[in-house]
Amino acid sequence: MTKDNYDKTLSLLTGVLDYEKFKSVDLAIETVVENVKLKQQIFAELEQHCPSHCILATNTSTIDLDLIGEKTNSQDRIVGTHFFAPAHIMPLLEIVRTPRASLQAVVTMLDVGKKIKKTPIVVGNCTGFAVNRMFFPYTQAALLLVDHGMDVDKIDQACIEFGMPIGPFRMTDLVGFDVALATGMQYLENFPERVYKSMLIPLMTEDKRTGEASQKGFYKYEGKRKASPDPEITSYVEESRRISGATPDPELLKIDNSAIAEMVFFPVINEACRVLGEGIAFKASDLDIASIFGMGFPPYRGGIMHWADSIGARRICTMLSEWEMEYGQFFKPCSHLLERAAEGLPLSASATKTMNNQAKGKL
Q1: Are 201 and 240 in contact (CB under 8 A)?
Q2: Taking every annotated instance into account, which residue ranges of this chain make up the domain 3-hydroxyacyl-CoA dehydrogenase NAD binding (predicted)?
């Protein structure tokens, strides 16, 4: 920035220590740690001090908005505004709408998103919303593979070769283990039947290995974010395997990088199908945009659902079913995916098209 731009930008900011100046604001965005009670307290205070027309927004990445606004009488003006890190690079803005949120609040946030040069999508309300929920199996699948004998670095390299900017373990180091544990607990509480319960991150956290910020996580760090493999994680991996009862699978170690990427991303497709089936995302193309602009999915593959359709629902379903038999229900195909596979429909097909096909079958 030039000095003039810097001074002008900084002059627009005003720091305060109380809510006195909040009585004239039009939009309040809360962005604190993923702590439900703290967020509920802040929203109760915002409701008390902000004008009645003020939109009350939260930058939570996982917590259900109904829970956050539980202690207010302002659910009609509570929305989620989920920015993706690093915010200066990732252009996605996920606007979360609850059934009680007013259309005006959503339209206003769409306008704000465009003004700040983001790419906004509107999604429904649930734990993790559309994007983080869709991608929570990304790291989970990687942890499962490690428990069954695969190296951390090999999995990350396979994902980079696939086209991701960084792999799941490097990403976890970047966001920090505290965030990973907090979001992981939200998924465990809400989707216990399909969360892979690895102890690897908790074990490392106990020894104050918390990611890049502590210079030790799945990798060790020296200088400017330079990550290098760390032999010390072997003992944590062995202990995690012991606790989970998993043993290294010799056949798994023979697969190539392309097959590793499929084992990591097919569960992501499976969860994306649930997100579509539940109406959290309104169309498959929203998830394509979100996967590229929010999670760094390789643009040349067209987005997560476009890539899935290039493979075909039947093959994805077949592979997930095989892995379910071998490694457990984490890989179990969801009903939305099973239906598309049985009917030979694209995963991006609308619910209307599916219902029409079912009606033809009955005739």
Answers
A1: no
A2: 2-125
Residue 49 catalytic? Answer: no
The Cα 98–Cα 27 span in angstroms is 17
Structural tokens at position 21:
């100046």
CB contact at 8 A, 347 and 308: yes
Q: At residue 204, what are phi and psi to the nearest 5 degrees? A: -70, -35
Domains of the chain: 21-125 (3.40.50.720)
pTM above 0.85, yes or no: yes
- Tell me how far the alpha carbon of residue 254 is from its chain's centroid: 29
Considering 82, 148, 306, 336, which one is annotated as catalytic?
A: 82
In tens digits, the chain (363 residues) has pLDDT values of 899 999 999 999 999 999 999 999 999 999 998 889 999 999 999 999 999 999 999 999 889 999 999 999 999 999 999 888 777 778 999 999 999 999 999 999 999 999 999 999 999 999 899 999 999 999 999 999 999 999 999 999 999 999 999 999 999 999 999 989 988 888 999 999 989 999 999 999 999 999 999 999 999 998 767 899 999 999 999 999 999 999 999 999 999 999 999 999 999 999 999 999 999 999 999 999 999 999 999 999 999 999 999 999 999 999 999 999 999 999 999 999 999 999 999 998 875 554 344 434 444
The DSSP line for 214-267 is GTBSSEEEETTTEEEE-TTHHHHHHHHHHHHT----TTGGG--HHHHHHHHHHH
Token pair of 262, please? 């499929």
